[in-house]
Amino acid sequence: MSLGSLVLLLLSILGALGLGHPGPLEDVVIDRYYIPKICLREVQMGDFIRYHYNGTFKDGKKFDSSYDRGATVAGVVGVGRLITGMDRGLQGMCVNERRHLIVPPHLGYGSIGVAGLIPPDATLYFDVIMLDIWNKNDKLQITTLSKPEHCNRTVENSDFVRYHYNGTLLDGTPFDSSYSKDSTYDTYVGTGWLIKGMDQGLLGMCAGEKRSIIIPPFLAYGEKGYGTVIPPQASLVFSVLLVDFHNPKDGVFLEHLEVPESCKRRAVTGDFIRYHYNGTLMDGTLFDSSYSRNHTYNTYIGKGYIIPGMDQGLQGVCVGERRRVVVPPHLAYGENGAGNKIPGSAVLIFDVHVIDFHNPADPVEIETVYRPEGCNTTTRHRDFVRYHYNCSLLDGTRLFSSHDYEKPQEVTLGANKVIEGLNSGLLNMCAGERRVLIVPPHLGHGESGARGVPGSAVLRFEVELVSMEEGVPEGYLFIWHEDPPANLYEQMDLNQDGEIPAEEFSTFIKTQVAEGKGRLMPSSDPEKVISDMFKNQDRNQDGKITPEELKLKSDEDQEKIHEEL
């Protein structure tokens, strides 16, 4: 309040108290009975303003009111469009300030008055609240309220944005809010779909940034206003939270968070991949996670089984890689979104950890870590081998180990006792040799997996061949190194009593093995092998073999062939 106004106000108060009679008022008396704590600007000459008022005479009789008309008054201060008293009395006001003004006749309607409304020489009393102030030279006012630490990209013209907002008039009166609709406002920037002030105010924003944007009327709805909620010539205040944005020309954006130093192979179209992921919106809202299900997501890439953005984003990954894949909506779920967790036109962010991948055509990958010198004899089909192994997933998760047991693992190669990939990886090895085997699931435990082994998992074996024994053909328990004796039964009937009991049979076979004339099927229990041989020959199971019962395996096979013919 100016010193002159204060003096006039004091004089009027003294007169009212009967302490003096100042005579006719020389100037407007101003009573600033409510001043807001924050005043960003004050009314100056040439400013455009909007305000409400009640106009009364000294006796309290109302002669006019903007409230009664249901519309604010809008005009320019100091250019003669208002009575002089109002021009002066509104100077210096803040938005939401309230004033009592006493306007003497010579600064109001003078000796003429207004016919039928204001008598001549009337002193006018105004109760005013200031609602809006702007100037034709005003510019957009942007205040950044908060901003993410990391901002790789900002909004540009032609970008499609999704944002939340609260919209108020300059006096704080709300007129609209996206939050009340429980949906973001989605639109293009710089293409004329928004008021000019919002088109400008959103430029340069980061996803997750909050801004206050004050828009003068000529960059908003101007003289017409908008419906019943935005008056003509209203400045607008938007509190904006940018949720996400993209450009229709965007491709997939990749951020390599962690790439293993050793990457011998990268995923390509047609590979089957197992990976964990967290899926979030651009504002950090989690919409899905494989971790919450404690199960990897398993799929082919590049074949249309997943959204196009992920089909592209997983190309070239390494086993063990951690990658961030940012997918624009036109390569994700588009305008419709998905379910109640992915809104329409949402940018999706996948933080991916690749567990393993393979191709259905992959063979077993064999890496020889150590091979003894002078290795002349290697394992073959049907050989009996003893080996140690450690088995893990490609991410290092330990599954099984022969070292957990007292003895090495034993198996006859080709007897379908181990997975096909391990069987292949044990072929052509020397005793003492060490290998690393990478076994794809179609040569391992397949889509279903096994106890402790996830479905479609690639397995890593560290194997060491401890020993091997030469095997026998499939279906044989014993083979002769040369032709068998012509009088086999007589030689086997050690006491020449015309029958061969189990003890005689066992003694004979062991003698042949000891003399190097033949060999048993390799086994950790040769007695059981001999017992099985005896049972096969004792066809009537009476505990002894007769001449009629004894037949060579090769003769039996020939008989079956003739029968089939």
From TrEMBL:
Catalytic activity: [protein]-peptidylproline (omega=180) = [protein]-peptidylproline (omega=0)
Signal listed as a keyword: yes
GO cellular component: endoplasmic reticulum
Primary site of residence: endoplasmic reticulum
PROSITE patterns linked: EF_HAND_1, EF_HAND_2, FKBP_PPIASE
Region (Disordered): 516-565
The PPIase FKBP-type domain, residue ranges: 46-134, 158-246, 270-358, 382-469
GO MF term set: calcium ion binding; peptidyl-prolyl cis-trans isomerase activity
EC number in record: 5.2.1.8
Keywords, sorted A to Z: Calcium, Endoplasmic reticulum, Glycoprotein, Isomerase, Metal-binding, Repeat, Rotamase, Signal
Ranges of residues in domain EF-hand: 480-515, 525-560
Pfam families, per database record: EF-hand_5 (PF13202), FKBP_C (PF00254)
Role description: PPIases accelerate the folding of proteins during protein synthesis.
Protein name: peptidylprolyl isomerase
